[in-house]
Amino acid sequence: MNSFFERRYVIAGIFIALILVLLARLFYIQVVDDRYFLYAQNNVMRRIIQYPARGPILDRTGKIMVQNEPIYDIMVIPKQVKPFDTVEFCKLLDIDKEGFDKRFAKAKVYSPVRASVFEKQLSVQAYASFQERLSEFPGFYPQLRSVRTYPDSAASQFLGYIGEVTDAIIKRSGGYYTPGDYVGITGVEKSYESTLRGQRGVRNLIYDSHNTPKGSYANGAYDTAAVAGERLISSLDMRIQKLGEKLMTNKVGSIVAIEPSTGEILCFVSSPTYDPNLLVGRQRGNNAAKLYKDPYKPFFTRPVQAYYPPGSSFKPLSALIGLQEGLIKPSDTYNCIGYYMAGNHRVKCTHVHGTVNLAGAIAGSCNGYFNMVFAKVLNAQGGKNTDDSYTSWKANVNKFGFGERLGVDIPSEGKGLVPTAKYYDKIYHKGGWRSTTVASLAIGQGELLATPLQLANIEATIANHGFYYKPHLIKAIGDKQVIKHEYTVKNYVGIDAQYFEPVINGMQSVVDYGTGQGSKIPGIVMCGKTGTAQNPHGKNHSLFVAFAPRDNPKIAIAVVVENSGDGGTWAAPIASFIVEKYLRDTITKRPSGIYPEYYIEKNLLPEIIVKPADKAKLKADSLKKATADSLKKRKADSIKQASFKSAQNKPAKKSLGNVLTAMLPKRKDDE
Amino acid sequence: MNNHQRSFFFNVDWVTVLIYLALCVIGWFNIHAAVFDENHPNILDFDTQYGKQFIYILSALVIGTVILLLESRFLSALAPAFYVVTVVLLAVVLVAGRNVGGNQAWIDMGGGFRLQPSEFAKFATCLLLARYLSATNVKVTDPKSFLIAGGIIFLPMLLIKMQPDDGSTLVFCSLILVLYREGLSVYFLIIIGLLATLFISALLVNVWFIIIALIAIVALLLFMFGRRNRKFVASLIVGLVLSIGFIFCVKPLYYHGLKPHQRVRIDEVLGLSKDLRGVGYNQNQSKIAIGSGRIWGKGYLQGTQTKYAFVPEQSTDFIFCTVGEEWGFAGSVVVLGLYLFLLLRIIMIAERQRAPFSRIYGYGVASIIFCHVIINIAMAIGYMPVIGIPLPFISYGGSSLWSFTILLFILLKLDSNRMGMNYA
Q1: Structural domain of residue B234, as residue ranges?
Q2: CB-nearest partner of A7 from B181, B287, B289
Q3: Do B177 and B299 have their domain in common?
Q4: How many structural domains comprise chain A?
Q5: By residue range, what is the domain housing residue A592?
Q6: Which of A102, A287, A367, A447 could form a disulfide with A278 if both were Cys (CB 3.0 to 4.6 A apart)?
């Protein structure tokens, strides 16, 4: 009856075998293979980076120089978008239909269910009109972000700007930054990046399969809060910064002012400048491109990057070295006959000074006197071993921070140039050069090149009678007002305090009755020195260095106005206004009759010759731009830089090289 | 038989009932986890699937009890009637049924309740098959009997295929195990296995490799056993020729005979295509859910894959994801262990019957439950294409739970009466 009964074992065997196969597979995916656990976590968990607010920057009086302003990014989740009035939408966002399609296609490619940025950086005003209609555009939503804003539109090269990280920065940061992050690119924003950026936080959120947030992961146990960036208190005084920028309108050059007793930089003008607000928001790309093309290079940070021959402003330093070496005495006199015989050629003086002592030589800027001093220094060993003497002179100059980096706290600082003895050995072969060969160094010409910051620092050192604090732009960091230790150390330059008085006497005379007398400020004793840096490529650069008041100096300053003429004509008056504004907060009537408005309105921009080839290229560029990706096509927003236009309107006279970079003087003695 | 009542309950196989209850409770809790709704956290909230499942379990128990109280002879006698009724219902559903998820499988009963005739067709078919095969003059080895038995299975299968419900159709194929137990040649099983292997190989491997391999195997077999046995040689060579013919039919059959949605699902399992965002999404998410459970699982109500709706059909066809994710490999072992225990127990019960009717019916029950378990779990872990088929006693749904309860409790009823049947 019950035949085939042994077949139950076959059937039971099939049951057992197949269930074991399933269990083996389950063992593999549940126990052996760990990937599925990670997949599941990736499915639901999103690490949301919490961006901290970037630290604001204040001026020395607590006035805000840069802070954050809310803006809105318009985000889109393509899958949630339903048909809507595209025309109206484009109008609200100020984009064209083509740009809309491109953006939307891009977002779709990125992900149909995840949010991507549709339009960046809508201002609060622009967003307000968009917000009213927001409900008509399902799938679009705003995301609050912040951008930098500059209430005074000043000190742009000092502050620098921030921008999206490049691949190189991401690589260098070791993965700290991710694409789309903003970092400081120049200026203080760059040098204090790690302080300003704060600390990012992370939120671990749970999302369901429809990408709807479902609260935080593990009740936020693994979340970290973002810590806002620290506040920076800069050393700048906005009053004189703004005045300085005004005075330098339509001029190329810079102003650097330092508080001698601290090394704090009070004023840091680089002209021409630009409105830092131009590099924020939706027009940023266009504006930046225009600024890059500006022939006067507004991004060039002249106070620390431009090199100028110090000219006569170098003379006090020259005198100090002679005094320290014991080669001259303040009372020693020199008879200026209108030229100095350096070997067998004449070095011209401005005029016949007659018999001058140290103070008189400084006041009258007598070239002969300083050639004499320099010859004494280089011939200290009786005309032999000039290179040794030169090397020790160079070392003395270097101690003032001239020819070396001062280590100021913004990027791209230049060293200036004090050539080595070897340099001259190369040109004239070893032992083939003497004091007369390099005589122009005595009067700050020849190969000598300094940045405006170095010039100002020399004045601060003289004001301090022999030492300086490292010049710096950030006074204190954070709420605790931490001051970096390196800024509290005195740097001695190796000149005894006693030698300064005679030199300072001379510098006072410069302003009282010498080459800078037009800039005398009633009631304030200012000690200064004019300089006229010879420029082989065009008109001379006008220089003025000074500190004031003579007793207990509060401000040391260097002013350079490129291609404008004598130091006393342009640089000195500008310096005097800054000094007075800083010390008195007002500018009084001057006996000489000078007033700031005249200087503000004066256009001293050098002409720029655009070569025909360049012109064609420029045109091509602008054409290319006009037809460029409509993502960037917007109303052309001209940069308010009258300077640029006025310079272009003038007819070209003679061919100039690049005035800004070709500053290296030809080896040429003054005759 | 004085204390008939006492011995009756004494005779019920309580081990099976306990396994049955365990699986129902496991199902209930996992449905709670799978469709957990924070606004209705209570497992007894009747607005939710888990609340409803509780009612289904209670009513299933009532149905089970009623079946135990029925007269055994009644079941055997009414088998043809049950069969006719379900076949009629299967035909009606094709005309007037309600279409849910692409399958015309439901009949509205009013009051929100729907019935799925294909669920009841399973036990009706088993009953009729048992009755037919248990007749004294019927032998499966006899071609005529085989054809009639096959017809009993094939008729409801065809109607269900027309809904079209591929899962349930496949389940009816499992009844071949019953025929095998009753004497069907083992070659049927071997040929089915061979065809399945050839089918899959032909899709994955170059046809010529398979042919070369087949010829080599046949040559080896001939060399080893075929020297004197002419019949063996002849059948081998015929088999070889048919196999090669079949191989060449596979691709046209696959690419033209199957519906696109079926083909892409098979492609996905065989690795012929990888579309984790489209066709493969559900199965991939299901695998992730189960795999992410690791050894001990994420804990009750802690499964993120199910909680955040990454897994589809979480309470019905993919309920095993919740088991795998929240209870880990340990949970998988317990559930599959219970099923295996249940299946072996059913075989044991079937084999202790004196009446062939009960034995045959028992194997039918085992085959159907086995088929459901294997297909459902293999699908959840990517070993089989996606086929909508519930996990017995665990998946959410009244029709499915009731039909499995009826299926199993009829066997328990027959078993409790095995002595009585003998005397009858």
Answers
A1: 188-257
A2: B181
A3: yes
A4: 3
A5: 238-601
A6: A287
Report the chain B residue with the minimal C-alpha distance to residue A208.
Answer: B308
pLDDT above 70 (res A620): no
Chain A residues with CB-CB distance to B340 below 8 A: 15-16, 19
Mutate to test the interface with A, among B137, B288, B339, B368 (most CBs of A within 10 A): B288
3 state SS for A565-600: CCHHHHHHHHHHHHHHHHHHCCCCCCCCCCCHHHHH
Which among A30, A41, A209 is the top mutation candidate for probing chain B, defined by the most B β-carbons within 10 Å of its own β-carbon?
Answer: A30
Nearest one of A109, A94, A370, A52 to A231, comparing CA atoms: A52
Enter the ipTM. 0.93
Look at residues A273, A234, A218, A261 and name the one whose alpha carbon lies nearest to residue A62.
Answer: A234
Measured between beta carbons, the chain B residues lying within 8 angstroms of A24 are none
Q: Do A19 and B374 touch (CB under 8 A)?
A: yes
Query: Which pLDDT belongs to residue B396?
Result: 93
User: Does B405 map to a domain?
Assistant: yes
> Which of A6, A8, A15, A211 to substitute to test the interface with B, most B CBs within 10 Å?
A15
Residues B349 and B289 in one domain: yes
Strands A527-533 and A213-216: unpaired
Name residues whose C-beta falls within 8 Å of residue A438's C-beta, 6 or more positions apart in sequence: A378, A390, A424, A446
Among B257, B286, B305, residue at a domain's last position: B257
Q: A505 and A632 share a domain? A: no
The overall average pLDDT reported for chain A is 84
Q: Is A178 among the domain residues? A: no
**C-alpha span between B268 and B192 (Å, rounded):** 23
- CA distances A39 to A45, A469, B288, B305, B381, Å, are 10, 58, 7, 10, 15
Tell me, yes or no, whether A667 lies in a domain: no
Q: Quick one: pLDDT at residue B293?
A: 92
| Tens of pLDDT, residues B332-347 | 999 999 999 999 999 9
Q: Cβ of B291 and A19 within 8 Å?
A: no
pLDDT tens per residue across span B83-132: 999 999 999 888 887 777 677 778 777 666 677 888 889 999 999 999 99
Query: How many domains does chain B divide into?
Result: 2
Q: Flag whether residue A1 sits within 8 Å of chain B, measured between CB atoms.
A: yes
Is the same domain home to B162 and B58? Answer: yes
Residues B228 and B119 in one domain: no
User: Are B381 and A7 within 8 A, CB to CB?
Assistant: no
Structure-token pair, residue A568: 């006393």
pTM: 0.66
**pLDDT score of A121:** 80
Structure confidence at residue A172 (pLDDT): 87
The answer, for A205 touching chain B at a CB cutoff of 8 Å, is: no
Sorting pLDDT into bands at 50, 70 and 90, what band is A639?
A: very low
- Shared domain check, A617 and A557: no
Of B305, B350, B370, the CB nearest to A43: B305
Distance from CA of B347 to the nearest CA of A (A): 7
